[in-house]
Specification:
Elements (H helix, E strand, L loop, with lengths): L1 H12 L8 E2 L5 E2 L6 E5 L2 E6 L4 E6 L6 E5 L2 H4 L13 E2 H4 L15 H13 L6 H10 L4 H7 L29 H4 L8 E7 L12 H12 L5 E3 L6 E5 L39 E2 H18 L1 E3 L2 E7 L12 H4 L14 H18 L5 E9 L5 E10 H14 L2 E7 L5 E6 L3 H9 L5 H16 L6 H11 L7 H19 L12 H20 L8 H4 L1 H6 L1 H19 L4 H12 L14 H27 L1
Parallel strand pairs: 4-8
Antiparallel strand pairs: 1-2, 3-6, 4-5, 7-8, 9-10, 10-11, 12-13, 13-14, 14-15, 16-17
Helix pairs in contact: 1-9, 4-5, 11-12, 13-14, 13-15, 13-16, 15-16, 16-22, 17-20, 17-21, 17-22
Length: 629
């Protein structure tokens, strides 16, 4: 119940955000829903005059379809043939009193009867607004479909009935395909109608954006709630509910986190007589917790193959995402190239400075929540992972992760679209693609992201199979394009370095066998590349033999060194420095260690550091020559 309590507290801390429309990066609108409200994609907007007459109607563009609507417990969980009308906006079969007259089909009873009775009770209650009364006055006249047909919003066949699905045979009646069939996936009767009130004298707030409308229904519906019971979340007695919200990830999401339907499957039968004996949750807590969850997912959640990864603070403050890379936290902390020589502790201080802004924004009582959700079926959702942590502990874990699982990367782009290098930890999604390849399915990616989270949050070692898979791909550059291999290489070095604690800067005093073999491979690669020149783009022998080298280093090195001789001859005295370096590094390997025992991931660290060092020296020498000339 702790995740429900923390979501409830988040809602209470952000009451000033209720009903305020925000936009995602794709301009899709969302808001922190008021209680007793939900969202629905509407297809038709009908405007009513203040005195209850039809004014106009239009088919709604898909980008503007999101609509905040009042709902009851029954309507929020209706399914199948169950008749449970929404209080105001609803499907055509519910809101049109002339639905049957135009060929509408009903299974048992007419939904409009239930809808208009429920709307009448709200319109005649002491909480009703003038807008509710205007809409009720119009709908009680029972000619909505007639008006929509006359305005060419809905269309009839030659028998005077609503066209079920568009077919070419209707082209004789209608010259082109009506717009309504472009926004609905089923029959016209499934179109969702939202209502608005028009005034010629003043500009009125849209009904679904009107705070007065929200408050009106909340006060009205509060009087209709059931008996009080002990809420297991807050420990207080208040009206309880056994019907909980869906549409958690998106407006079409039917999966619920809490459900007590025991008509099949026998979830609790045999242990309890009814669902309330398992847990009792108040209506207010359920509404606020679920609405806060929807708001947070829209605002800052990550969804991969319907799996939700969410991090938030109880007070609603923005929290650094553990799944992002160091560049996302602060691109400026690795601007100077010489920082790659920093120790982990020195770099940890740099990361800590970058996180100070987040730390100061969090209140003293704020905790950090990490939640992962997913659904196995269309109707049920589960909490796969949940942690509630002290903010100091959370930020310290982030600092440790970014200062230990770090390396120098060159695959990120800045705001201008230019590639930049950054030093730090890679994002978990990038780790997934480095481990399993860019064609890895979303199912594989979300599984790895879930497995990596405890490594960051709980300070655990990265699973060995992930490191091995990344190491295998990084050791096989000929199977990838150059950009992909370079990205895979730097990410793999970061994964290996979490345990080894090496620096990117070349460690000339490191006499580890695998590290030295990696240095040899890098020198051979750079030597051949310089002999080939910038015009030649093919891979060097060192790169082509890299996979074999990682498995049989001594035997493969003999082949690589023999293939270097023509390039050494081509370079002449210009390659003397690199040839001497090969001899110097090889002499450091003990005689008994110069064998075919497979290399560990340390060889990649040696390879990367040595290659980086040589490239840096080349850049410096080139710049000196340019300044002299």
């Amino acid at each position: 119940m702790s995740w429900l309590l923390n979501l409830y507290e988040t809602y209470e801390s952000n009451l000033d955000q209720v009903g305020i429309i925000e936009k995602k990066y794709n301009d899709q609108e969302f808001t922190l829903l008021p209680i007793s409200h939900t969202t629905q994609n509407a297809h038709i907007e009908v405007e009513i005059t203040e005195d209850g007459e039809f004014h106009s109607a239009r088919v709604i563009d898909k980008n503007d379809a999101g609509t905040l609507i009042p709902c009851t417990e029954d309507s929020a969980s209706r399914a199948g043939s169950k008749i449970a009308p929404y209080p105001l906006h609803d499907k055509l079969s519910y809101v049109a009193g002339d639905f049957i007259a135009y060929g509408g089909k009903i299974k048992k009873e007419e939904p409009f009867t239930y809808y208009i009775k429920q709307l009448e009770e709200w319109a005649k209650s002491p909480y009703a607004t003038e807008k509710v009364k205007s809409i009720y006055t119009y709908l009680s006249k029972k000619h909505l479909i007639k008006d929509l047909v006359e305005r060419r919003i809905l269309f009839l066949d030659d028998k005077g009935n609503l066209i079920e699905k568009w077919d070419k045979k209707y082209e004789s009646l209608h010259k082109e395909k009506p717009l309504i069939f472009s926004v609905i996936s089923g029959e016209q009767e499934s179109a969702f109608i939202r209502f608005n009130v028009y005034s010629p004298n003043k500009i009125l707030t849209k009904v679904w954006k009107d705070q007065e409308m929200y408050d009106s229904f909340i006060r009205y519906y509060k009087d209709l709630l059931g008996d009080e019971d002990l809420c297991y979340v807050t420990g207080k007695r208040s009206p309880s509910t056994d019907k909980h919200a869906n549409k958690i990830r998106n407006p079409a999401d039917k999966a619920k986190l809490i459900s007590s339907n025991d008509s099949s499957g026998f979830t609790f039968r045999g242990r309890f007589n009814n669902s309330n004996e398992v847990a009792s949750i108040s209506y207010e807590v359920s509404q606020k917790a679920h609405n806060a969850l929807k708001w947070l997912i829209n605002r800052q959640g990550k969804i991969v193959d319907n799996r939700v990864f969410l991090v938030w603070g109880n007070d609603g403050s923005e929290i650094p995402d553990p799944m992002e890379d160091t560049f996302s936290i602060d691109p400026t902390i690795i601007e100077r190239k010489e920082r790659i020589s920093y120790t982990n502790q020195e770099f940890a201080n740099e990361v800590a400075k970058a996180l100070d802004g987040f730390k100061s924004n969090l209140s003293t009582k704020a905790n950090v929540n990490i939640l992962i959700l997913d659904s196995a079926t269309t109707g049920r959702m589960a909490v796969l992972y949940y942690r509630n942590m002290d903010k100091e502990l959370y930020l310290n874990r982030l600092i440790k992760w970014h200062s230990t699982c770090n390396w120098l990367h060159r695959y990120r782009k800045d705001a201008h679209g230019e590639y930049v290098q950054f030093y730090g930890a890679p994002a978990t999604k990038d780790i997934a693609f480095a481990t399993y390849g860019p064609k890895a399915s979303d199912k594989v990616v979300k599984g790895l992201m879930e497995r990596m989270l405890p490594c960051i949050i709980d300070d655990k070692i990265i699973p060995l199979d992930i490191v091995r898979s990344a190491l295998y791909r990084a050791s096989n550059p000929v199977a990838m394009e150059k950009w992909e291999w370079e990205k895979t290489l730097s990410i793999t070095c970061a994964l290996i370095n979490q345990k080894e604690g090496y620096k990117v800067a070349l460690d000339t005093e490191n006499n580890n066998r695998d590290y030295l073999f990696g240095r040899l491979l890098a020198i051979a690669d750079v030597l051949e590349r310089r002999a080939l020149g910038p015009e030649e783009t093919r891979s060097s022998n060192a790169i082509r033999y890299m996979n074999s080298f990682s498995k049989n280093p001594a035997r493969t090195w003999k082949t690589i060194q023999e293939s270097l001789q023509p390039y050494q001859a081509r370079l002449g005295t210009k390659g003397l420095y690199l040839s001497k370096m090969i001899d110097e590094v090889a002499s450091r390997i003990n005689y008994e260690d110069f064998n075919n025992k497979p290399l560990t991931g340390k060889y990649l660290l040696g390879f990367y550091s040595q290659r980086h060092e040589l490239y840096q020296k080349k850049e410096k020498s080139d710049s000196i020559e340019e300044s002299i000339n």
